[in-house]
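Ticket #4471: complex job returned nothing on first submit. Input attached below:
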Amino acid sequence: MARIRLGMVGGGNDAFIGGVHRIAARIDGRYELVAGALSSTAEKSKASGAALGLASDRCYGDFAEMAKREARLKDGIQAVAIVTPNHVHFPAAREFLKRGIHVICDKPLTSTMADAKKLVAAAEKSDALFVLTHNYTGYPMVRQARQMIAEGAIGRVRVVQAEYPQDWLTKPLEGEGVKQAEWRTDPARSGAGGCVGDIGTHAFNLAGFVTGLELESLAADLDSFVDGRRLDDNVNVMLRYAGGAKGMLWSSQVAPGNENGLKLRVYGEDGGLEWTQADPNYLWFTPYGQPKQLLTRGGAGATSSNLEASRIPPGHPEGYLEGFANIYNEAADLIEAASEGRKPEHLLPTVQDGLAGMKFIDACVRSSARNAAWVTL
Amino acid sequence: MARIRLGMVGGGNDAFIGGVHRIAARIDGRYELVAGALSSTAEKSKASGAALGLASDRCYGDFAEMAKREARLKDGIQAVAIVTPNHVHFPAAREFLKRGIHVICDKPLTSTMADAKKLVAAAEKSDALFVLTHNYTGYPMVRQARQMIAEGAIGRVRVVQAEYPQDWLTKPLEGEGVKQAEWRTDPARSGAGGCVGDIGTHAFNLAGFVTGLELESLAADLDSFVDGRRLDDNVNVMLRYAGGAKGMLWSSQVAPGNENGLKLRVYGEDGGLEWTQADPNYLWFTPYGQPKQLLTRGGAGATSSNLEASRIPPGHPEGYLEGFANIYNEAADLIEAASEGRKPEHLLPTVQDGLAGMKFIDACVRSSARNAAWVTL
Amino acid sequence: MARIRLGMVGGGNDAFIGGVHRIAARIDGRYELVAGALSSTAEKSKASGAALGLASDRCYGDFAEMAKREARLKDGIQAVAIVTPNHVHFPAAREFLKRGIHVICDKPLTSTMADAKKLVAAAEKSDALFVLTHNYTGYPMVRQARQMIAEGAIGRVRVVQAEYPQDWLTKPLEGEGVKQAEWRTDPARSGAGGCVGDIGTHAFNLAGFVTGLELESLAADLDSFVDGRRLDDNVNVMLRYAGGAKGMLWSSQVAPGNENGLKLRVYGEDGGLEWTQADPNYLWFTPYGQPKQLLTRGGAGATSSNLEASRIPPGHPEGYLEGFANIYNEAADLIEAASEGRKPEHLLPTVQDGLAGMKFIDACVRSSARNAAWVTL
Amino acid sequence: MARIRLGMVGGGNDAFIGGVHRIAARIDGRYELVAGALSSTAEKSKASGAALGLASDRCYGDFAEMAKREARLKDGIQAVAIVTPNHVHFPAAREFLKRGIHVICDKPLTSTMADAKKLVAAAEKSDALFVLTHNYTGYPMVRQARQMIAEGAIGRVRVVQAEYPQDWLTKPLEGEGVKQAEWRTDPARSGAGGCVGDIGTHAFNLAGFVTGLELESLAADLDSFVDGRRLDDNVNVMLRYAGGAKGMLWSSQVAPGNENGLKLRVYGEDGGLEWTQADPNYLWFTPYGQPKQLLTRGGAGATSSNLEASRIPPGHPEGYLEGFANIYNEAADLIEAASEGRKPEHLLPTVQDGLAGMKFIDACVRSSARNAAWVTL
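Support reply: We reran it on our side without changes. The output follows.
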């Protein structure tokens, strides 16, 4: 199969996540980056593109021009990765979706609920795919956890504990010229949620992905601990799932010592599961009344979903980039299937998952504004 | 110094915590158990006492008789350990306090708020000491965490994450003849709180001990996941401390794989601290912007409070019993000081700490009854 | 049962291990320390004894006087703990053994092979017991490991990896007035082995205890890395067991970061076991082709020997002192049995185990002197 | 910069390491695989090549034909990855080196010492580069460990503990049709070393890379525990380095529970370092007399070499493939430099490192044949 021609919106210099998408797209050799609106001006875009080996005439000053022109090219891009700040997700995605170009978009879905609903409509109207990079769902042990719960390994779920602490915003970096900090604490670019939108959504999404539970209501207490910060940097949430399971979710960007501490613990009537992103090749399985088991990527006790998402033998650690690459690899499957008129089942996050994430952010913000009252999603 | 003559109320056969208190009292050789109302009848009490080497005439059928008689003996007990189910704490403590016998009492303070207030009054009226065995505060690394925060090592505290999951009540053991499960799930003996009273209070107390913060209000969502259970077995709480720090507290007795998972994490403006009860000889110290440090009991970087609470060199693990013994050892210091008319400063949990714990339980129950609304303590 | 009257030789001020023996003897309440030759002069001994609550006339200036006098007392000591530097073990033990007083002696057995053989003879001739405190064999998970191997859980043993690194002698403390360092690096008091005698023997003993294997030959490379040190401070050994199993043993006192890192790993035809002293409540069991299991003290999968050596529920960590106390507790069983003419089976280290340890030290020293040639034990 | 045109020898179906090399070559986007002698016949090679998107006429039946033809093509390969069983390394490398095609070769260097020496000669005669994929040296924390030692962070090195246990050959898989097991236990294809050649060399290489020490002599005890196995599956070695440092090395393929347990511990006069391959983003640094520090990839305390070898922020785990990709990435730097006539300094394993590894294997085999006597390298 020929490589899928990929474009990118955003991801110029200084942008962490753009580089991640590019590596993820390369790992399995199924994409070729051929075009980009990488930066905010044509000049900068061409400079960034040159460093990436893009032809100068495929480096654009904005996504609209890129969408229009690439759609006309005989060998124009088949898919686009959108890796901009949140407020650009919707307008950019719309342009590509309406031209039938598949979209792989970073999370959260958009910066506003209004945009989110429009993007859902645009995605549902389009024949093109829309994949949201909730990349943590691509880890093999996360896949195994999901499969085990679906197959009843821990019984009916009672308790969910999700957390995602970081520490990089412990000090007011947004006032010190750090671009990543600037836009992530700016309501105009990030939306109403700060930490809750940036990483709280990942924890929320992960909990739903693994447990299969639907969140009904929540009570959220958001804080901005750093003086002058305009968005939340610490998020405490209590969760009530349909069917009676209860949970807690904590995310923070002011918790020193936590580099990127996404963690999920799920307890059911018959056992528990624990997974930590920083050590992603392990999954604790604790069947009630039996010894604790440390399951590993590709190791003894691996489920089919674990093995399918693995590349190399157990004990050879795979990491964040491989998990991210699984999203790209499976998106490639879907893109190839689409070209043949097939729509296979898959595990990838969809625009509906993105909408659910937006509802989560919105509910947290609403709840917190009402003294952490319970709100429905 | 001669050993302090100790009596015990409760702690007959089948009682886990009675044996713990006895070992804790023996470790440093400062007490001699000489009397007991160990069980609910004189006959059973004598049987239990015989196994412990007590003289038959110092084994009583009830605490009232014991208090009365021991107070008259020339070599009667100087202190009593109360290790019964919660509802007996108050009436028993009252009898000894009013006779000037020092009381070392298990937590929570009582089974009702009304009793708690009466016990506070009784303790304050008495010349005798009242020590509550929030034993986890006796661990050397907990002492170090408290001292480090007091000395500013992590700056002003912003975020508290306390948790105490267990798994032993995952199934309905109270219906299977397990005595420990019976009384701990019985409102008449435990009070209005189940899991929240049994272990949630430990987590609450630990957070306050370490941070020095006062809890102002909370929102609690209590559940009884096991069919027919009469008290809560899972506790989700959001916390607001005086001065603006925020926290979460989770305790559960239905979380498979968690044997006794008390854990505290505290994050301030300049760093963080993490401590886990199951591995108590370690304390993570994470100063912002510097490498993570793993501090150890008695090891490099140990504070004075760590060293004072340690018996043996680093790398030779001390455990739960030694932490518990620190409470007994320091109570012995106070008892000896009292006999000399001194009242030295100390770190031991007092009746006021017990009252605070009762208010915490009460607030959790009230909040949960009102759909987890915020309530003040 | 009345408490066993215990004496102690050594264990005055500055002596770490004396305090450990005293706590271990107290934990289960089966001994009462009533006499001591705690220090090298009667005056010092009385001062140390006073601090421990001993009667002045039971504090002796030397062990010979103590043995003679206590043997004549109606309520003289029934057992003695010998906690001196190694060279005193034999002469002291001899005095008590020949008077029928049970001996609980610290390891290694003696400071010379000649003494060791004489001590074996003395112990075998005496009706009194001789127990060597290879305390690490008292840990519940060590007991479980031994039982599992004996019951075939990992199949025939192929590979043994034992290690015991410490770091406290990284610098020349013996030249800085540290008493513990002085005698442990002094051939006259420690014997021909330094690190190998002090802690290497523990690792050797533990490997034999757990596997049941007999060491046939070894090749050892001993070093003194610290300038001027008179005994080895780093020990590399290759092991050949009867029956074909192979092993390695490393012990060191110059490995910074290792507080007390005794660790044993055993691999058989069907599985493996791993235990680490610093985290003693855990035991990894890795059956070939199955998920790794983390077994816990008193938890699911606990063997009878684990449970019998445990005092409190899983998740409430027991430590070094409880493991040590198990030796004392079981010695009390033997002493009581002896008083009734019974000689029950037991797991306690004997004088023969002590002799085996001396042969190990001797073989290591001989091998190293011959350029680490293979020598038989 | 245009991508480097890469060929591959070996790496057809069933071959684990071929896929690893291909991903490693793709991650940073600097190579394009365009030709291959992937399997032992032209037909199989074309089938494997087709699956990888290679043009049919660039898929060869043997490496000699490939080398000859590609050297003549205008856009022929610039570099070749050799990922065959060991005995093919030398003849294949020779063909490409003599035509000026850069060689990236899997370890160990060859299957015999004679071949190794010829390969050194061939590499030194050629203008082309020869890079050996001792991939573990590519991990960022390994780079940091090396730099820290070179800069004196732990003082003069005294003690090295290297180990590399696996468990996949615990049972006689070579008799069950497992190809990976067949050739790795076959002297004709692997050489005189089994486990020692396959993974022992990695541990040896890693220890040398990190410490900068040169091994002078060793004593090795090799075993084949599995009945009928023709090469060693367990390797115990004592090490003596130039300058006086001592070490031990254990590698095994019959240690159940060890998936891929490469680990290195180094202790010097002033501190220690510990690194474990399965958790590669961490490095323990234990300065003597100070708290233990857990250093992380890209985190606080990262050295320049750590940061240069990292792609993404701390807490986002990089793994085996990224470490391997660092080798490819830096080889690309060298290849580009070579095309400009430059020969920059680098950290990549060379043919001389490969020769050192062969001498290590040879010395182990010689020593073991002489009852584990000491032999010089």
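The CA atoms of residues 42 and 185 of chain C lie 26 Å apart. Closing as resolved unless it happens again.
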